[in-house]
Amino acid sequence: MDPKGFYLYWINQSKETEFLDIATIRDTRAGKYAKLPKHPKVRNVFNMDFPDSHHLAKALTIVTGPDTVNLTYHNFFAAKEVAQVAYFINVILKMFPADKKRVEAALAAANLPKGKVCFDTIKPDVFTEAAFKTFILHLCPRPEINEIFTSFTKGKGFMTKEMLTKFLNEKQRDSRLNEELFPLVRPEQVKNLIEKYEPIFAAAGQISPEGLMFYLMGSETSVVKLDKLAQSHDMTQPIPHYFIKSSHNTYLTAGQLTGVSSPEMYRQCLLAGCRCLELDCWKGKPPDEEPIITHGFTMTTEILFKDVIEAIAESAFKTSKYPVVLSFENHVDSVKQQEKMAHYCRTIFGDALLVDLLEKYPLKPGHPMPSPSELMGKILIKNKKSSTPASKPDQAKKASSPEQANEAADTSESNQAADPNQPAPANPEANDREEHDDHDEQDEEKMKNSDEGTAGQEVTAYEEMSALVNYVQPNKFISFENAAKKNKSFVISSFVETKGESLIAKNAVDWVEYNKRQMSRIYPKGTRVDSSNYSPQPFWTAGCQFVALNYQTMDFPMQLNMALFEFNGRTGYLLKHDVVRRSDKKFDPFTDRIDTIIASTLTIKIYSGQFLSDKHVKTGVEVELIGLPKDPKRKYRTKWSTTPNGINPEWNEEPFVFEKILLPEMAYLRLVVQEEGGKFLGHRIIPLDALQTGFQHICLRSESNMPLTLPSVFVHIEVKDYIPAAFAGTDLHTYRHMLSLNATSNNLSVIVFC
């Protein structure tokens, strides 16, 4: 914990101090991307209209907000090219209004001022690390840590170096680790920990309960394995081998029927690491005839296509350098306006737009897709591609090569079978015309109330737009057999969530195989008018790459999505697990046993909470596991804390056990803290294979997955290999050996366990 301030402050023109919570900063924009004053008087004050004013070097915009929708823009314009920024400790009493006496007592114990004067400050040379620790000890006592300490030392007031070594090796260490590859804690390491955290007995080589508490709050006990968080995935495999962070109807800030559209949503999604954005493109009205983006046949507002392209160009590679896919739902049945769209893409994106194929990756059956590394810094367009580019809506050129003729046949076949459960139309050409014609009111009403919405009503690209489409070519899904026969890695199919759920229930194994070769995009059903989301987990277990969600709604599915993509450097790309990539073995998400993988058992004991609420309230913790269909589904809850106490409530109940987690690398622990009555206080979702075992403080997140500065839950976590009842009492290494022999006898690749 850091005694430094949580607030940025500045002095405004009225000589008033204004504060900004640093934890809410989402973006900073300088130069041409900053918001500049438009009022003539303001521009005149700063000589902005003079050539030598250097006004771009003086402009700064800080964007803050709790999520991607509710944003505030703090616009600064400095008199000089260098603006001074400082950190400030806001009045601590305001952080805990319900426990003013406790805060004052803690400040007094640390010999700190009580802040009775408005904006009273604490000088840095007074608010030392030692003073901060004393303040925390008195503000948030930790009797549960004292009990743990006493039980391990058998009543002694200190731990010797040998006792602490035993504690670290027995209580904090993952019992599954091989001692030769991962040696036990060495005396020198223990000595360093004592010197770092012990405030009293360090010279004697001992540690007190306070020292142990500070150790358990330190970086060595991060609940997320730091090496896992820092790990970089192999980015040289074909793109279908990755999960890709994806957004649905990216332009919307609220509901699907009357929500406001905004180019800012594209910036925010990209800054959050999103790599696939959706653009619903419609024909603009005279006289400008500028293409627009909106949700068709609804009352959502319209924004200019050009403004969106500019927003994407600005933020595309700020967070991640890996490729961005723009998923066009194109309803612009105008050659002129499609030409405008193509022109904006070419001129605004410039060299970032991938137009020409990579020499190693021709668009031919059996050839793989390029890797994210090979497409780094590139923007790819996903749009219906015409195999016979047309200069007019009703006139198509004849195919000039056998390859174009084959592509035309594929398109004709896909148009005939938009839904494999429905009979194909008698006249394919008539069906194609119907997609391009204006819809009557009955058709519009049907689209608004259907699962697919307007997604199946796009027009095919004319020549200029079609030329921009290469490695991500959308095609109607016919069947898994047909896709395997075509063997085109560059063809992608989109599935509404309800269709996807049906495929998982009936053809899960086939879909996993399909996703090893080419890509799937999943999107919410059209009847989710409140912009709610479906659970992405079932589609990840089937290997689907683009699982698109409504980013304006921070519900549980979005929280799970944000938690998953925190890894691999927040690049928006995650290498899929071996079982959904390897070509030599099929994977069934509904299996109750994976031959080459040892299942796990997770045990978690909830001890206490810290700084959960600024009110006198009872609190409780809910714990669940998200994983494969046959993983444990039970949801555990603690009792409500015995007394109203938002600062340091205790539970100390029996541990919660999740037995036989089949694929730990695709399972997640979810923990939610609530007030009595159900009000959300904080949550955390962590992949099981990233969990650090032992005593841990789980720092909580807001509903929009923003880190909360102080709230945490103190737990003990244990993850062990699951051994079936039939092998109870069998030595762990013997059981692993038996599993390996069984895998070998089935001609399977054997995983080497540590």
Automatic annotation (TrEMBL):
**Mind telling me which PROSITE patterns this protein's record contains?**
C2, PIPLC_X_DOMAIN, PIPLC_Y_DOMAIN
Q: For this chain's UniProt record, which GO biological process terms are given?
A: G protein-coupled receptor signaling pathway; lipid catabolic process; phosphatidylinositol metabolic process; phosphatidylinositol-mediated signaling; release of sequestered calcium ion into cytosol
Domain spans labelled C2: 581-708
Q: EC? A: 3.1.4.11
Name the enzyme's class.
hydrolase
**Residues annotated as signal peptide:** none
- One function term, GO molecular function aspect: phosphatidylinositol-4,5-bisphosphate phospholipase C activity
Q: Is the Nucleus keyword given for this protein?
A: no
What is the protein name for this chain? Phosphoinositide phospholipase C
